[in-house]
What does this fold into?
Amino acid sequence: MIELQCPIPISDYPVVTLAHGGGGRLSQLLIERMFVPAFANAVLETLHDGAVLELNGARLAFSTDSFTVSPLFFPGGDIGSLAVYGTVNDLAMCGARPLALAVGFILEEGLPMEELWRVIVSMQRAAVAVGVPIVTGDTKVVERGKGDGIFINTTGVGVVLPGVHIAPQRAVPGDRVLINGSIAEHGIAIMAQREGLAFETELVSDSAPLLDLVLRVLEVGGEHVHVLRDPTRGGVASALNEIAAKACVGIRLDEERIPVTEAVRGACEILGFDPLYVANEGKCIAIVAPEVADHVLETMRAHPQGAHAACIGEVVPDHPGKVFMRSRIGGLRVVDMLSGEQLPRIC
Amino acid sequence: MIELQCPIPISDYPVVTLAHGGGGRLSQLLIERMFVPAFANAVLETLHDGAVLELNGARLAFSTDSFTVSPLFFPGGDIGSLAVYGTVNDLAMCGARPLALAVGFILEEGLPMEELWRVIVSMQRAAVAVGVPIVTGDTKVVERGKGDGIFINTTGVGVVLPGVHIAPQRAVPGDRVLINGSIAEHGIAIMAQREGLAFETELVSDSAPLLDLVLRVLEVGGEHVHVLRDPTRGGVASALNEIAAKACVGIRLDEERIPVTEAVRGACEILGFDPLYVANEGKCIAIVAPEVADHVLETMRAHPQGAHAACIGEVVPDHPGKVFMRSRIGGLRVVDMLSGEQLPRIC
It folds into this structure.
């Protein structure tokens, strides 16, 4: 029997706040205090990007994501392609090839029919690009003022590739931390668009499918690829903190090796954001054994989605559960999980 | 390449209306004109309650549903148990045993934390009752006034039982139309609660898991069970119209054999609803070959979820694509698909 008493004390958080959906510390609190104890089971407790289930000798990956991004259309993408790529990317992070997607729409009364059609066309193109069929769906409509245009849930099933064993717990000291390109592009593009900010360089979301890149990384790295993670809400900092905590290892980043474009760096300074905490939608962190690191990095760089790939750090035995960064001038600082809400409705 | 021009003429429907989510004619228009042509594939085109995919010799059922019911708590259930039962019921209607559920929450800023916890507790109990683990999830938070408390998407995967072949297209003339009890209870309970109507008898939703009942029906009826369908949004009338259209058969109902409680009949008269169009959340229509009909009906009646089961009609060769009803006094009338919106946000 589960507790009837709410496990998050009302005195701390009487109501749900935007930060509870931000991908940082408060999101984790909801998951750890409410969802995991309530729905207690071994698969959920792995807290990976998706669940992996055994079925007739196959390993089935299963992942869900709701998309509430505002605005619906932004430079580099829209809610439709984001919803397809987002869930397919989560399956890829389990080492799985997608089998099919289910789509649930929650539409707001008064949504222009043309806008819905633009989103559907974008989903269709994204699904074709990734080679995944959308096989089932559901549509609900809520009254004006009870939704916000379009919310989309996409849930995917996929098959984990043979010989592949991806899990946050597999990060071990000595492993290298790789990323396939410049960070913070999605979050900053959304924020600039939302605030109507004009920058000299157009800021474009990195929203993209990562399946093909991941398949090549796995081909080259095989079982030496220990962890894959797409650093969406909460950014690279939150994703790595989760991995460090689950694997009980430290992760040391090198500030000067983290790729950030000049445009994004400038916008972050103006908007007051740290790029390490800003969402990505076309980035993949790969934590791999040192013996394959160079080869995986070359493979990433040879791929259209990985031209600016870099090795940004290393898994270390000290400070287990923590992420820290060696700054350009040599100092070390702790890189915490995102606390509070940085950018609501980013995905 | 799909059409860039919106396939629903702006002159007809410039914007999405509540009726587009009502489960009737306009819902069907969205599906037939937009979703099916855009996402064109053979599995989606079956338009069943869920998709069935082949995997390593197993048949995987895959179904998604978003729940936006208002109010969140109602006599006989709440959004949490409804979201679990709803998707497990959809899998059951494919003849599948559930393997796992994924849950996506869209929460509105300001939602009392206690209310979220009550919903989670209810989901957990429902999942335990059905024996399905919730293995993965996602939580988003939208600003106050951009959502409505809690929306839940549940997506399920299951395994279709061997020897079972359920599809709307399998209805053939001579088949009997069975239902496991009184209709319209969910919709009327929600409506009475929402409108603050007091009736002498309390109106209680029939929200319930149908898996166990379906397993027994399949045990007894085997491959002679041709179609299973839970008549949710749009009610029995819309569900049967969809089946009649897909199977190119007529369906004749006998008014006097359709179970409706006195309380529901009275409330429908006061509220101006036809019970045939009102949503159910614990009812299953089974269309079965005549040789097993009596046995299946007895099996339903012996089950706690089927005490008031009845044979309500027959599949006939005439009027293909139409549902019609023989009234108490012997006349025949056409029972159309729901047109317009009857009860918004019923599930």
About this structure: Residues 113-130 of chain A form the longest helix (18 residues). The first strand of chain A starts at residue 51 and ends at 55.
